[in-house]
What we know:
The protein has 438 residues and is mostly helical. It has one domain (40-417): Ammonium transporter fold (Orthogonal Bundle). Helix content is 67%, strand content 1%. The chain has 15 helices and two strands. A two-stranded antiparallel sheet has the order 1-2. The protein is globular, with a radius of gyration of 21 Å.
Amino acid sequence: xxxxxxxxxxxxxxxxxxxxxxxxxxxxxxxxxxxxxxxxxxxxxxxxxxxxxxxxxxxxxxxxxxxxxxxxxxxxxxxxxxxxxxxxxxxxxxxxxxxxxxxxxxxxxxxxxxxxxxxxxxxxxxxxxxxxxxxxxxxxxxxxxxxxxxxxxxxxxxxxxxxxxxxxxxxxxxxxxxxxxxxxxxxxxxxxxxxxxxxxxxxxxxxxxxxxxxxxxxxxxxxxxxxxxxxxxxxxxxxxxxxxxxxxxxxxxxxxxxxxxxxxxxxxxxxxxxxxxxxxxxxxxxxxxxxxxxxxxxxxxxxxxxxxxxxxxxxxxxxxxxxxxxxxxxxxxxxxxxxxxxxxxxxxxxxxxxxxxxxxxxxxxxxxxxxxxxxxxxxxxxxxxxxxxxxxxxxxxxxxxxxxxxxxxxxxxxxxxxxxxxxxxxxxxxxxxxxxxx
Length: 438
């Protein structure tokens, strides 16, 4: 039996195990909890959950328009398949690992919500007390979906599709879930340490950025790394969907239809606008034409950077975050192009570095008058405690994600080669992996 046929057995076996699990764990609620649930908050969070989900198709267009024409379908499918694979994984055990009973602040117990047991009839999450627990679980699922999809931009045009699926399963279980638990569970080690991450700058963007760098280094460069973007119009469309969906990403992280959600919405759009405009101005200073690609990349960098700070800072400070993150990421893109690192779509300079800049600036601008969750005000207000904690956490998270991801890449490659064969890369992944073309 060929390797391809042997690998095809794996997902079938997995689906059979899941089917068996649905009989062993039917997850029939004893009674749905309704006391304390707000209809307004629930309606908003249902909307926010849909907004976050649409970000992943938006990302597919954003990345798909940037790659060469023979790799558009493959690149877009890598985002879409994450919606399928991670959703199944989240229901079976992922949510439990991220938000189950804490095991030393590092990871949740896999038995707490195995197969979504005690989710439909569970009491509301303590930090989201006015919405059904199942809605909280599904909202968090959308974050888990987009994180591995973000990584694909660094691996585009050369990663084997089946190997990518195996890798995102490992990444979700061993990188994303522990990091989400450590940061967002009240008993998580980063949460107890005092790290602030309003909507995923650390959990989503830093983790995706460092994983992208590990993947780019592991896979090495493409055989031919020069190409023209297939559809700049796709990039514009993807940016619009991302910007639209990001309101759910950030404002939804207030878990209520309240003033903090409104602040997060305002800081999100202003930071993105400032970053988009800064990117093209900075390009002009360097002698480049103001481009659609540059505008879109700048907008996304601003969205990334504001994410950890969105509900903790003022609107003027969000403008500062957008401007600073745009300049830093622009410079990092220039630096990356002078190295041998083939991060195809500059995921690390934009998402990784943007997330780190946002995390550090949260420690500079956060204030308790904006959000009472801020115990220690930011550096600009004369106290250094929060900023120092964010520096320490940044270093720890960076090492954990980069080293952990590299080990997972080694494991994946040992099971099934990560990189396509040279002739498959030359043919293009649309044809060689999926038998399709534009």
